[in-house]
Amino acid sequence: MKETRRNFLKNSALCGTVFFAGSSLNISLANNHVVSESDPQAKALGYVSVSSKDGQACSNCALFQPEKDEIGGCPLFGGKKVASQGWCTAWAKK
Ligand code: SF4
Question: What phi and psi values does residue 80 have, to the nearest 5 degrees?
């Protein structure tokens, strides 16, 4: 009985560690899919995650491909997502 209990505790600790590692990996993978202002391509295009241009934002750009949670695709950034409130120098009226 003691051995079973010890194994249960050991396995529980192991599961917790694996779950935590998996959660951290998911968070970092999710963050990798959103364009950062420090991304070389973003710098080249002057991308900002919050537009300061009146009436211009990714959400009303012809290239924006809206998705959920205020992000969307942009062909200029490959598989990475941009913020709907973002902006870059390639902005084009929808
Ligand atoms: Fe946003 Fe620029 Fe892409 Fe337009 S081209 S959706 S402004 S990042």
Answer: -85, 155
Q: Residue 57 C-alpha to ligand 1 middle, in angstroms?
A: 7
| From 45, 47, 61, mutation site for ligand 1 pocket: most ligand atoms within 8 A of C-beta | 61
CA distances from 3 to 12, 15, 73, 88 (A): 14, 18, 53, 62
State residue 62's pLDDT score: 98
Q: Which pLDDT tens digit goes with each residue over 9-62? A: 455 544 444 444 444 334 434 555 999 999 999 999 999 999 999 999 999 999
The whole-number average pLDDT for the span 58-85 is: 96
Ligand 1 centroid vs 66 CA: distance in angstroms? 11
Distance separating alpha carbons of residues 2 and 58, to the nearest angstrom: 61
